[in-house]
Backbone:
């Protein structure tokens, strides 16, 4: 086990960035409404112990504030999150981007929930512990007791829709 401290910032979107606020912060918001009622993603980093044997561990909390907003010009977009991962007290790495594909639904009908898909990603040689290198695999969201690349977000919930973001660390098998 090794102690890991994480923080993250939203670094980009694949559509017109002027539709968003909060780039380069941990809160990315969108919607043609007052800032307090915009839909938003928030990434909250964590300080935790992680295993180096492939066991999925929490590296942060993903929150979606899913408010009813007018349909944006691009209802499907990808938001990019870059995470700083500090191992122990000396080894700090920046990894990313993690890509979250968002589907903003029309808020009516049998399935008004927004959905988020996390694209698969692996980062090579993220940390060295006792002379051995480890890769970081982003496993997905822990929501309702299951780890999945798919996140369902209830529309206009009283509290934000929340899941733990899970990653695993495995021995590096590549060259060098």
Residues:
């Amino acid at each position: 086990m090794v102690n890991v401290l994480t923080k993250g910032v939203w670094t980009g979107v694949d559509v017109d960035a002027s539709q968003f606020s909060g780039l380069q912060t941990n809160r990315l918001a969108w919607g043609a409404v007052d800032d307090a009622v915009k839909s938003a993603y928030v990434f909250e980093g964590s300080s935790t112990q992680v295993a180096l044997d492939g066991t999925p561990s929490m590296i942060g909390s993903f929150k979606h504030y899913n408010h009813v907003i007018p349909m944006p010009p691009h209802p499907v977009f990808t938001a990019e999150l870059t995470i700083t991962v500090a191992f122990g007290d000396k080894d700090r790495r920046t990894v990313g981007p993690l890509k979250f594909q968002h589907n903003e639904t029309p808020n009516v009908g049998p399935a008004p929930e927004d959905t988020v898909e996390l694209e698969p990603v692996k980062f090579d040689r993220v940390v060295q512990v006792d002379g051995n290198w480890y890769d970081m695999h982003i496993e997905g969201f822990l929501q309702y007791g299951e780890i999945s690349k798919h996140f369902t977000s209830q529309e206009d919930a009283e509290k934000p829709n929340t899941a733990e973001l899970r990653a695993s660390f495995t021995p590096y098998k590549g060259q060098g």
The chain has no helices and 14 strands. The two ends are 24 Å apart (CA to CA). The chain has one domain: 2-171.
